[in-house]
TrEMBL record:
<dbReference type="GO" id="GO:0006310">
    <property type="term" value="P:DNA recombination"/>
</dbReference>
<dbReference type="InterPro" id="IPR013762">
    <property type="entry name" value="Integrase-like_cat_sf"/>
</dbReference>
<dbReference type="InterPro" id="IPR010998">
    <property type="entry name" value="Integrase_recombinase_N"/>
</dbReference>
<dbReference type="Pfam" id="PF13495">
    <property type="entry name" value="Phage_int_SAM_4"/>
</dbReference>
<dbReference type="InterPro" id="IPR002104">
    <property type="entry name" value="Integrase_catalytic"/>
</dbReference>
<dbReference type="InterPro" id="IPR004107">
    <property type="entry name" value="Integrase_SAM-like_N"/>
</dbReference>
<keyword id="KW-0238">DNA-binding</keyword>
<keyword id="KW-0229">DNA integration</keyword>
<feature type="domain" description="Tyr recombinase">
    <location>
        <begin position="98"/>
        <end position="273"/>
    </location>
</feature>
<comment type="similarity">
    <text>Belongs to the 'phage' integrase family.</text>
</comment>
<dbReference type="InterPro" id="IPR011010">
    <property type="entry name" value="DNA_brk_join_enz"/>
</dbReference>
<dbReference type="InterPro" id="IPR050090">
    <property type="entry name" value="Tyrosine_recombinase_XerCD"/>
</dbReference>
<dbReference type="Pfam" id="PF00589">
    <property type="entry name" value="Phage_integrase"/>
</dbReference>
<dbReference type="GO" id="GO:0015074">
    <property type="term" value="P:DNA integration"/>
</dbReference>
<dbReference type="InterPro" id="IPR044068">
    <property type="entry name" value="CB"/>
</dbReference>
<protein>
    <recommendedName>
        <fullName>Integrase</fullName>
    </recommendedName>
</protein>
<feature type="domain" description="Core-binding (CB)">
    <location>
        <begin position="1"/>
        <end position="81"/>
    </location>
</feature>
């Protein structure tokens, strides 16, 4: 398996797959091999079908997780092992449509006030103000903050694409306050981990947000990504153009951004309710 793993990693690097995708695919294949305890080049299409059933019935994985496993298997057999399998017999799971959890503006303030460390406050505000992903937040560099043009450079975000987002006056003020409060000034990474050698890990941000949610007594399921959803929804409710929101979030398709129409309160409130047209008296 070691040779196959290395070749698959090389194939993914050649095709420019992100580090996160590479890690996820390799982890999926590791689980696949562990299930059969056999080298994947010795397994058949029927074995893959058996594994699909196992994922659904026994592990009860979510649709997105299931599809990630299938994408990894198709890459392994189609690209690395160059096996001419009938991939139509290795179907993806139908994706369920789930609307994002969105905080109210008041809840965003409560979450912000629930943390005391200025670094954590700055991180929450950056996530909410810019709508960036947590991976993009962690890879922000001090040099990415352009206070003259009032922009933040997002370098090699999802899909390996660069983009710029607006830097608000309030966020700039809070970032400067955070920076000046640090004994060890951030030099490379805006939110560094240990000794500025590397950025913080995503699990640290997850734990910080969960702690803030608990302290703020917010009942909703809140993650760092919730700030992205809340940012986009609040912009839409404020009358911002959907296309501008798409560019800011870095969505490839406008259809992805359009999901916020389903949770924006102003769009829901202006929808006529048929019950209100009935004379019940």
């Amino acid at each position: 398996m070691g040779i196959i793993k290395e070749r698959m990693k090389q194939d993914m690097e050649i095709r420019g797959l992100s580090e996160n995708t590479q890690e996820a695919y390799l982890n999926c294949i590791k689980q696949f091999v562990k299930y059969f305890m056999t080298s994947p080049d010795q397994l058949t299409l029927e074995d893959i079908h058996t594994y699909q059933v196992f994922l659904i019935r026994d592990r009860k994985v979510a649709g997105n997780t299931f599809n990630q496993h299938i994408s990894a298997l198709k890459f392994l057999y189609g690209v690395t092992l160059k096996q001419k399998l009938n991939f139509t017999l290795i179907p993806f799971h139908k994706r369920s449509i789930k609307l994002p959890v969105v905080l109210s503006r008041e809840e965003v303030v409560e979450l912000y006030k629930a943390v005391s460390y200025l670094k954590h406050k700055a991180m929450i505000l950056t996530l909410y103000s810019t709508g960036i992903r947590v991976s993009e937040l962690l890879h922000l560099k001090v040099a990415d903050i352009d206070s003259k043009r009032m922009q933040i450079r997002i370098e090699q975000g999802k899909g390996r694409k660069d983009r710029y987002v607006r830097l608000s006056e309030k966020l700039l003020e809070k970032l400067r306050l955070y920076w000046s409060s640090e004994k060890r000034k951030p030099k490379t990474w805006l939110f560094p981990g240990y000794r500025d050698i590397a950025p913080l890990c995503s699990s640290s941000v997850e734990k910080m947000v969960q702690k803030a949610r608990e302290n703020a007594c917010i009942q909703k399921h809140v993650t760092p990504h919730t700030m992205r959803h809340s940012c986009a929804t609040h912009m839409l409710e404020a009358g911002e153009d959907l296309r501008k929101i798409q560019l800011m979030l870095g969505h490839r398709s406008l259809r992805t951004t359009a999901k916020y129409l389903h949770v924006a309160s102003n769009y829901i409130a202006t929808t006529n309710n048929t019950l209100d047209t009935l004379d019940l008296d």
